[in-house]
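Listing S7. Sequence submitted for prediction.
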Amino acid sequence: MSYEEVALRLRVSRSTVRRLVRRGELQVVPVGGCRRILTLSYLYYVSTTMGGEQR
């Protein structure tokens, strides 16, 4: 998932998503020349911080 996709789903800014990545709360993988957030990492974050309520 792109940083933009995650930001839209969580209803936060891209800088907040970058902060979550820096803190290790979201994991990223390199894809080509980009870094993408792992979908499982996103789902885990949502389930543990938002009571499983996926936005």
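Caption to Listing S7: primary sequence and predicted structure tokens for the chain studied. The mean pLDDT is 93. The CA atoms of residues 47 and 53 lie 7 Å apart.
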